[in-house]
């Protein structure tokens, strides 16, 4: 090779920007899908968290999401991706043995998909990031921000990577058993719901007055964040066939069918029992529908099954949140700010079980990379009963249940250990002064500084660039 091209990665020539194994359409779709998932977090959940909380916690809540997104990326390219998808170190964990340099990033992903490793690293990063941000939802309004800064890399390293390798990596033990988790019902939603609930126990509840009254500071802005979250789910589920395929098309359509059905079901239940159509309730129903369909992502279930899953995801999490939460002692004791346990742990568990029931073996053939015939596994119980393969159907249900138990135990144990470790270094919970002061006490900043509601602009360490000093002096004169 000409010395001037010596910098090129192994197996690439000067005219090889598009090697034979790469499909431009697949690569473009994968990058687009990943970016849509990223937008669910930034700005989607940043806006949602910042607007659905009490005004004094708007900055802190949004900032927890923004920080997690950035911190996860640095940890992910450093070691998280290799622990999750690298060569086997343990049956549930990869090993860090390859530096993510150009010789690795520009090679074909898993020697199977028609795009480079760089695209896969980016795609998997946004899933890891949103998982941590969902955990934050259970901790809003009282967790020490420094403790959160420590929690994010620790939980990513010791919990997320174990679940991701076990279920998503072809060498993972649950993956080899045939667990179906199309887009993260187990790895993301069940994990975040259980981890958030567990962390909320260790951090403790919000201030009494916040827990008694915690109104959203901007419902319209909340809807904007929720809308970004919903539309971003197109990439969340549509990207997991790892190709611009008919399976991706089916996944996208049925994802939105399930979400809409769940939203409407939740809305009708609110009207029936509370006589008022709640927009916050409808948003919760939208989320539970999106979470429930995610393990199946409609790529392994048919459209009618997606509707049934939407009906159930609108009913069961509603019941656990609105009825059981007020009766079960443990649920009443733990302060889960955004009800992450119900919207993600309950809905994720439901989705995992329904996937095991409704998984269509013919559709699974489009998605799975099983080394043996799809009919021998990935057969939902409903199709097992219909096709005379009852054993295969019950086996799939058993594997799904095993995956649920594993993820729950993993996250309860690891999250508890991480919280106990952090507690030795810094307090998990904000001080009483900070709990009372909110954003101003914690960050020296406020989300809304309006003269009309009696607020005054305060001096921030960063606001003088925009005339903060002059504004303060003007108000002092007034």
Architecture overview:
It is a single chain. By secondary structure, the protein is mostly helical. The termini are far apart. The protein has two domains: about 25-435, Orthogonal Bundle (Ammonium transporter fold), CATH 1.10.3430; about 450-475, no CATH class. It is globular and about 60 Å long. It has 20 helices and two strands. About 50% of the residues are buried. It is about 65% helix and about 0% strand. It is found in: Cell membrane. Its main location: membrane. It is a multi-pass membrane protein.
Would you state the CATH class of the largest domain?
A: Mainly Alpha
Percent helix, as a range, is 55-70%
Number of domains: 2
The total strand number stands at 2
Average of the residue pLDDT scores: 86
How would the global form be characterised? globular
Overall CATH architecture of the largest domain: Orthogonal Bundle
The profile of the biggest β sheet is:
2 strands, antiparallel
Strand order of the largest sheet: 1-2
* Gap between N and C termini: 75 Å
The chain-level structural class is: mainly alpha
User: How much strand?
Assistant: under 5%
Q: Rounded to an integer, what's the Rg over CA atoms? A: 23 Å
Order of helices and strands: HHEEHHHHHHHHHHHHHHHHHH
Q: Can you tell me the CATH superfamily of the largest domain?
A: Ammonium transporter AmtB like domains
Ranges with pLDDT <50 over ≥5 residues? 369-375, 457-478
Task: Look up the CATH topology of the largest domain.
Answer: Ammonium transporter fold
Number of separate helices = 20
């Amino acid at each position: 090779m000409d010395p001037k091209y010596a910098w090129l990665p192994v197996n690439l020539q000067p005219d090889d920007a598009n090697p034979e194994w790469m499909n431009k359409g697949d690569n473009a779709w994968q990058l687009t899908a990943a970016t849509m998932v990223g937008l669910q977090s930034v700005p989607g959940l940043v806006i949602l968290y910042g607007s659905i909380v009490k005004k004094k916690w708007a900055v802190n809540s949004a900032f927890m999401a923004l920080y997690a997104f950035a911190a996860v990326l640095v940890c992910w390219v450093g070691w998280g991706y290799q622990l999750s998808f690298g060569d086997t170190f343990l049956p549930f964990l990869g090993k860090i043995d390859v530096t993510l340099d150009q010789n690795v990033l520009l090679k074909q992903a898993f020697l199977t998909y028609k795009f480079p490793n760089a695209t896969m690293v980016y795609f998997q990063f946004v899933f890891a990031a949103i998982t941590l941000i969902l955990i934050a939802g259970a901790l809003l309004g009282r967790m020490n921000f420094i403790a959160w800064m420590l929690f994010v890399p620790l939980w990513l390293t010791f919990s997320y990577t174990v679940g991701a390798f076990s279920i998503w990596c072809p060498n993972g033990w649950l993956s080899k058993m045939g667990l179906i988790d199309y887009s993260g019902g187990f790895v993301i939603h069940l994990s975040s719901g259980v981890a958030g609930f567990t962390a909320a126990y260790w951090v403790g509840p919000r201030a009494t007055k916040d827990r008694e009254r915690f109104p959203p500071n901007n419902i319209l802005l909340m809807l904007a964040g929720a809308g970004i979250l919903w539309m971003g789910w197109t990439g969340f589920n549509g990207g997991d066939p790892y190709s611009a395929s008919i399976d991706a098309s089916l996944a996208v359509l049925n994802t939105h069918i399930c979400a809409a059905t769940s939203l409407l079901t939740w809305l009708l239940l609110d009207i029936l029992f509370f006589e008022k159509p709640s927009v916050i309730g409808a948003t919760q129903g939208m989320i539970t529908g999106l979470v429930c369909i995610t393990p199946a992502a409609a790529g392994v279930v048919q459209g009618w099954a997606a509707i049934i899953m939407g009906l159930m995801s609108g009913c069961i999490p509603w019941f656990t949140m609105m009825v059981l939460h007020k009766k079960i002692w443990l649920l009443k004791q733990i302060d889960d700010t955004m009800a992450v346990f119900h919207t993600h742990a309950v809905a994720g568990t439901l989705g995992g079980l329904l996937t095991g029931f409704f998984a269509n073996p013919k559709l699974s053939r489009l998605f799975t990379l099983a080394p043996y015939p799809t009919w021998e596994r990935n057969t939902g119980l409903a199709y097992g009963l219909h096709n005379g393969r009852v054993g295969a159907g019950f086996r799939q249900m058993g594997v799904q249940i095993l995956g649920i138990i594993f993820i729950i135990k993993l996250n309860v144990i690891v999250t508890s250990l991480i919280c106990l470790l952090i507690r030795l270094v810094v307090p998990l919970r904000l001080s009483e002064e900070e709990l009372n002061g909110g954003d101003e006490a914690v960050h020296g900043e406020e989300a809304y500084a309006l003269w009309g509601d009696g607020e005054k602009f305060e001096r921030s360490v960063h606001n003088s660039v925009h005339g903060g000093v002059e504004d303060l002096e003007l108000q002092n004169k007034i």
